[in-house]
Every structure is written in structure tokens, then in C-alpha cells.
Amino acid sequence: MSSVSAFTNYFVICHGGSSSQIQAITNNIEKTLRNIKVRADHIEGDVSAAAWILMDYGDFIVHIFNEASREYYGLEKLWLDAPQIDFEEDTPDMGR
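Below the sequence we write its predicted C-alpha cells.
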């Protein structure tokens, strides 16, 4: 992002399938980063409505959407000039 944006180096864009999943994603990001002493400069959005949560950490900004909002706003399309890194974590089978 730094090649096309003066306000941040990275966007992390993801979505959850339900309000509770979006809230869990938000809480997990916040807790994980707090454990390494990284705190958000600003968090915006209503976690209970969970259409779009923005977590501003300065060098990177995390966008957490519900699926409809992610498609509607299309942030990936707005930043086509920025390099993109696709990431999917392989979740190990937890014996379920």
C-alpha cells in the first residue's frame, strides 16, 4: 500500500459469515496484537451490527466485513494499483 497510499502500508481485508463470527475475528485480532503490545489507534464500526469493522493500527488497517458489505464496497477494486497478497490459512483438523 505504501506505493499508492500515504496513510498506511497494508490493508488486511477479510469477512465473516455471521455477526458472531465477525465479532470473534475482531476480538481475536485485538487480543493477539495486544499480547505483543500492539494496540489499535482507532477501532470503528458496530460489532453487534457487524457489517464493517475497521481497526486502524497505523502501519496497517484491518477491514472485517460481512459478505454482503465486502462485495458492495469492493475495497480490493479501489486499490487495484497496490500489490496484493492472497492469504488462506489451512486450518488443521482438530479431531472433530
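The chain has one domain: 10-78.
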